[in-house]
Specification:
Elements: E1 4-8, H1 15-28, H2 34-43, E2 46-51, E3 57-69, E4 77-88, H3 97-113, E5 118-119
Parallel strand pairs: 4-5
Antiparallel strand pairs: 1-2, 2-3, 3-4
Length: 120
């Protein structure tokens, strides 16, 4: 009973999957409102979606990058990787799939895309 992860932009997530994601969020977090959840999701660049073997969503994490001017690197622009809403169904809490998919995306995909900038 493993999880499989994919990364897609929020605009490509079907409405029924967004509804499942909202249900997951509201199961594990208090005061989750649909309008706020949907608006926040729409602002993100990518979403890690975790599915079980039956293709049911069992977790997700939203991602975006931010450009920051920093004193630490002599005024150079750096990219900040921001992980937003994140939740995994309790029976999958021991899974390392989110860490693997998120890490691969950041360490390989984003590192190549922004090779001229430091990532944080």
């Amino acid at each position: 009973m493993g999880l499989h992860g994919t990364i897609i932009p929020p605009s490509e997530i079907p409405e029924e999957d967004i509804t499942r994601m909202f249900h997951l969020m509201s199961t594990y977090y208090d005061n989750v409102a649909w309008n706020n959840f949907y608006s926040d999701l729409s602002e993100k660049e990518q979403v890690v979606i975790l599915r079980d073997n039956d293709r049911n969503i069992q977790g997700f994490s939203t991602l975006m990058t931010l450009d920051i001017d920093t004193i630490m690197e002599s005024g150079k622009k750096v990219k900040i990787i921001f992980s937003g809403d994140t939740v995994i169904e309790k029976k999958f809490w021991r899974s390392d799939r989110l860490l693997f998919v998120w890490g691969k995306y950041v360490m390989i995909d984003l590192a190549q895309k922004f090779s001229d900038m430091s990532l944080y």
